[in-house]
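User: Can you write out an input/output pair for a complex, sequences first and structure second?

Assistant: Here is one pair. Inputs:
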Amino acid sequence: MTDTATVDNFPALHQKIGDKKLVYLDSAATTQKPQSVIDAVTNYYELDNANIHRGVHTLSQRATKAYEQARKDIADLLGASRAEEVIFVRGATEAINLVAQAWARPRLCKGDEILITEMEHHSNIVPWQLVCEQTGASLKVAKIKDDGSLDIDSFKEMLSQDTVLVSVAHVSNAIGTVNPVEELCALAKSVGATTVVDGAQATGHMHVDFSKIDCDFYAVSGHKMFGPTGIGCLIGKYTLLQEMEPWQGGGDMILTVSFEETVWNEVPFKFEAGTPNIAGAVGLSAAAQFIRKIGYKTIHAQEQELLAYGRSVLEAIEGVTIIGTAKNNAGVIAFTIEGVHPHDAGTILDHAGVAIRTGNHCAEPLMKRFGLHATCRASFSMYNTTQDIDALGTAIQEAITMLR
Amino acid sequence: MSNLRELYLEMVTDHAKNPRNRGKVDPCSHIGTGHNPLCGDKLVVTVLTNKDVIEDVKFDGEGCAISTASADLMAEVLVGKTIKETKILFDTFHGLLTEDSNTDSVPRKLAVFSGVREFPMRVKCATLAWHTIISALDGNEGATTE
């Protein structure tokens, strides 16, 4: 189980909610930040703050070095074949929108199809709906099974010669299903489709190897992997990124500008118009180092143990139904409590110091698939313990006593 | 825990579990659909008015304990009220939920929601039915707490 050294790394976890110890079970929404990430951001602003890629002065050189080092760190951690394949963006949502607008929009036309799955987050649905509206392409949706796993047969059926792009979640945010992304990308490639994997819920929890998955684009959220908010990456195959036109214009993304003609800068700068979130990248770099130090293997083993224990505790409570019971699941448990609306559960659990997420989890179509408006969701990270899950179980019992 | 007990008073949980006014007024003069995007709850409120006076109110749909109890008790207190009185009462009720206002002027059946004040995230739950009925009485079909 967690050694206290790991928990001690996260200052926000050491506080009380009212008179109760905080039990943070909402890491799928955002992870807490280790001290090293907080320090990296603070140090950057205290010592190195400057704009990058321009100034010849010392601070600018330091800031530039730190920013580009962050790119290398992410490339190393997530298996990009070169640092230039990492484009810094605001988060996974912006990464997907970048692909939608800069890759898909100029290439798709009427009759083309985009394939997603029923378990996608709104951020892997809506950008494609926009592209469909803009190009006349249509959106196809592969079904999921009752246990929350992807129906591979449905996925295969939906794939055709018209499929130009496939975009799937690596891990479902709402129920935690882990998709076999390598297999799905290989299937997509067999019909010549370009592939996008939404890795927002993966990179904080399990080893991700961009080159091995062999997708064309991989979306990363910084704040869900112990980094600051407002920073994330799009990892893309270098040759594809080269072929693409920029999606935003501004400083840093150009080589030369005249009123007659402007020449784009190289990849990745072509996609990073304006002053980027330098402090965010520095923080993300510290997060990558933190993950390396602990190791994905340790993190994953810990979370799998919590998942198994959590499922057993929740299953034992009468009236609790777990939504999403796939074998290959991340540390996420979605559930409903008979006679207790998720919104009420959220309030009552918070009073017991237990932070969970309630609602539709930005996955309305998935909720509809299970015939639900909302669920409760407990999601784990490396800093959680079995005691946290016991606290969750006790708080659920309190909610039942209060409202049933 | 004391705050929580004040939020879920017995009258609130009782009306949430056993709402008396769930259903549809048929025929009705006004109908409205309320939606709380935060939790996905949807509510349909039907009203029958006679010359500006509310004769009957019912609500349908699934919601949390606070929104269900609030819809149910709203339906009880509004029967016999004019549309103008309804709007004034909503303003008073809203003040009860968001400001440290005096509960004396509020009907007892609405005063049970004063505990919501300590839970700003739940104000939308307590007001969903009210937003919906005001919208319906104004001749609009949809309401949202956003």
